[in-house]
Task: inverse folding
């Protein structure tokens, strides 16, 4: 005890000496403190609004809970947390923005949401674009999620740098639309994403639903309530708890019929890789339009929305179904440019009842003028849509159809959310199931992409053995030549051991192995099921988890090679997929086991392949130390892939 007392006395004495020393070197004319500048009227008003909003949220949360118990209390508690979901997410995004402002150039290049080291293209003069000017820049090879139309900020100051007018990642060229009063940053400089968009309309929609629940008016939003309560679908002609589709049913017909039978409820349509969820959804939607229903189409991205709209128009023309459709976007970069569906940037126009098909993001369907105006709302890529946004836009609909696959890449939640309020709608409803139970929805269980020798692994490892290959997939194969010892097989999965050590996010050794395989593949032919032809760059995808490895692979492979992270290629396919894991061992993991060994990431990577998937990895990566049962399961999936592929010699013999 005396030693502890002496230790603390010394701490106090040292602190006093430090204080005296600081006072001794203090300039005599310096002030003790400076009064902070008074907040502006606008800032004061914003803070007052925030305080009022937080008080209203707390009051509504208390009203929701009441004296309820058990399952009723559980879902009401989740709803209460959803009221504050967007604020928690925004707080994380603001912190991420401030963090990126402190990152150096190399870190920004490696961060796929940024664009690092832009240098002004002095060979091109600025040109006028309406009231702004287009300025041209070049940047080094890097993987970026920035897109045309994105508002961007300078990483050094956090000030606006206009918006992206054009972007070519292959050539490393970008043009920025910058206002005449905005300072052009000196080269080199880097771009970071704009701060989060104020989600007021989404928050108000969640609050509108929560207020109805607190007032005992849940019948107004029965479809949304059924999702939060995890109820089974209510359908005419099908008893609750019975299978919605029967084995052997034509799945397009089964989905179309099931959707039309919904009674103010919801339905899950799970579409594993290559099972035609967009094709199937389009047929169901066109049938509803033919029956005079008003249909909504929503997703997180305009790209996904436009893809589904394209199929809707195709099917409508084929079936001679006429309808009036509208797509709400923010500008030309979001436009659909269809023949039956018009584009608008006006929310009022999109809400007009003259349209019986309405498409847009959650920001459209959450608006009060859309409330309960849609008979059936189809939410595509629902595995990437947070539960809060499904509640918000669900206020527009009498019935909700969730289309997606939670076993592919799921939504990325940035904030920390209590009581599972941060999950996607699919995760909320399926409670850990890899496939949708027959009484809860329909699994599209026939893939027209995966060769049987790939489908067998994906089905067993990911989809509980329920995924089957269409008979046509067996007709596709690589013409491998006289030997298959180089890892190039006719079909299936090949696991290539590449010895290396000390690598975290990139591996030169794997780059060389991938390069050798890529070169060998370009000398081969393949049967695509209809004809035999040479493999081209367009027929090969190269996938890796890390942007640093993407950059090395792009530099090593021929120009135009399809190289990217797993996120980039979801929804795409190729005859052959080359997967580079890059990390040497568990000691070099740059993030965590959950990222590199994600079952969803491995599923997406391998399931892009129509014929052959080749996985390049260090053998020591499979010896990683796990700290939980969940981590064991994740690592086991990659071990399973290697066992399934069969042992192959190290390296590539070409």
Result:
């Amino acid at each position: 005890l005396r030693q502890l007392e002496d230790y603390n006395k010394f701490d106090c004495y040292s602190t006093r000496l430090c204080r005296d020393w600081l006072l001794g070197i203090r300039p005599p004319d310096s002030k003790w403190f400076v009064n902070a500048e008074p907040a502006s009227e606008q800032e004061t008003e914003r803070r007052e609004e925030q305080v009022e909003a937080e008080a209203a949220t707390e009051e509504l949360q208390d009203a929701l809970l009441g004296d309820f118990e058990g399952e009723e209390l559980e879902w009401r508690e989740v709803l209460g947390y959803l009221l504050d979901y967007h604020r928690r997410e925004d707080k994380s995004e603001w912190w991420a923005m401030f963090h990126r402002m402190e990152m150096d150039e190399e870190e920004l290049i490696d961060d796929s949401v940024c664009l690092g080291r832009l240098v002004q293209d002095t060979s091109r003069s600025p040109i006028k674009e309406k009231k702004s000017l287009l300025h041209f820049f070049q940047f080094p090879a890097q993987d970026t999620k920035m897109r045309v139309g994105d508002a961007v900020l300078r990483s050094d100051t956090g000030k606006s740098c206009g918006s992206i007018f054009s972007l070519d990642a292959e050539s490393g060229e970008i043009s920025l639309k910058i206002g005449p009063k905005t300072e052009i940053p000196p080269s080199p400089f880097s771009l970071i994403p704009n701060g989060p968009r104020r989600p007021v309309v989404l928050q108000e929609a969640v609050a509108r639903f929560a207020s109805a629940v607190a007032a005992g008016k849940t019948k107004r939003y029965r479809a949304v309530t059924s999702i939060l309560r995890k109820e089974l679908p209510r359908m005419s002609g099908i008893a609750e708890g019975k299978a919605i589709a029967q084995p052997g049913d034509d799945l397009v017909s089964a989905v179309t019929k099931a959707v039309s039978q919904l009674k103010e409820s919801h339905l899950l349509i799970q579409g594993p890789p290559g099972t035609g969820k967009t094709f199937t959804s389009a047929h169901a939607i066109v049938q509803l339009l033919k029956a005079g229903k008003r249909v909504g189409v929503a997703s997180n991205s305009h790209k996904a929305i436009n893809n589904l709209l394209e199929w809707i128009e195709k099917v409508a023309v084929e079936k001679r179904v006429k309808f009036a459709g509208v797509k709400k976007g923010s500008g030309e970069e979001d436009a659909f440019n269809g023949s039956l569906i018009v584009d608008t940037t006006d929310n009022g126009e999109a809400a007009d009842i003259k349209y019986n098909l309405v498409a847009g993001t959650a920001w459209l369907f959450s608006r009060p003028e859309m409330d309960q105006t849609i008979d059936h709302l189809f939410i595509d890529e629902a595995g990437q849509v947070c539960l809060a946004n499904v509640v918000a836009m669900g206020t527009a609909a009498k019935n909700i159809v969730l289309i997606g696959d939670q076993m592919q890449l799921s939504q990325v939640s940035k904030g920390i959310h209590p009581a599972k309020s941060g999950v996607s709608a699919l995760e909320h409803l399926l409670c850990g199931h890899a496939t949708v139970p027959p009484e809860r929805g329909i699994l599209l269980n026939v893939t027209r992409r995966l060769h049987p020798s790939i489908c067998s692994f994906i089905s067993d490892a990911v989809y509980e053995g329920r995924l089957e290959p269409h008979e046509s997939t067996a007709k596709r194969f690589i013409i491998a030549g006289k030997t298959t010892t180089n890892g190039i097989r006719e079909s299936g999965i090949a696991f290539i051991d590449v010895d290396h050590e000390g690598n975290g996010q990139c591996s030169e050794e794997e780059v060389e192995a991938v390069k050798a395989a890529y070169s060998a593949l370009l000398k081969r032919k393949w049967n695509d099921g209809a004809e035999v032809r040479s493999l081209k760059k367009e027929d090969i995808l190269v996938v890796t988890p890390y942007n640093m490895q993407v950059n090395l692979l792009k530099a090593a492979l021929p120009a135009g090679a399809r190289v990217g992270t797993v996120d980039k290629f979801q929804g795409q396919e190729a005859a052959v997929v080359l997967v580079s894991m890059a990390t040497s061992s568990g000691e070099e993991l740059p993030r965590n086991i959950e990222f590199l060994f994600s079952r969803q990431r491995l599923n997406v990577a391998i399931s892009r392949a129509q014929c052959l998937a080749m996985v390049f990895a260090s053998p020591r990566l499979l010896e990683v130390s796990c700290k939980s049962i969940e981590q064991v399961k994740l690592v086991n999936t990659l071990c399973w892939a290697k066992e399934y592929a069969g042992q192959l010699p190290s390296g590539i013999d070409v």
The two ends are 73 Å apart (CA to CA). The CA atoms of residues 115 and 191 lie 5 Å apart.
